[in-house]
Amino acid sequence: MSEEKNSDVQNMSFEESMKVLSELVEQLESGTLDLDKSLEVYERAVAIREHCRAILDEADRKVQKIISTANGDRREDFRELDG
């Protein structure tokens, strides 16, 4: 599966991504897929995992900025993080 086929991943929410990832893992663990299909499913799962990681990294950065702001260290404009 090419990156083109995984382009929809970037538009998924974290929750939607986790749901799809769980379904893909179930497919892989079922042992019913042939090798080509297994590789295709695995590639999509990796793309979704990376998407989830990026979302979590961004959330972590926001939390760190909130903590920093709450401690009075500095103020941040979160609009720039969302864009």
Account of the protein in words:
This protein is mainly α. It is built from three helices and no strands. Helix 1 runs antiparallel to helix 2. The longest helix is centred in the middle third of the chain and has 36 residues. It is elongated, with a radius of gyration of 17 Å.
Secondary-structure blueprint:
Elements: H1 14-30, H2 35-70, H3 79-82
Helix pairs in contact: 1-2
- Give unreliable regions as ranges: none
Tell me the series of helices and strands, N- to C-terminal: HHH
Biggest sheet descriptor? none
Question: Count of DSSP helices?
Answer: 3
Q: How much helicity do the residues have?
A: 55-70%
From the helix content, strand content and strand pairing, which structural class follows? mainly alpha
Number of strands: 0
Principal-axis shape equals elongated
Please give a quick description of this structure.
By secondary structure, the chain is mainly alpha-helical. The protein has 3 helices and no strands. 6% of the residues are buried.
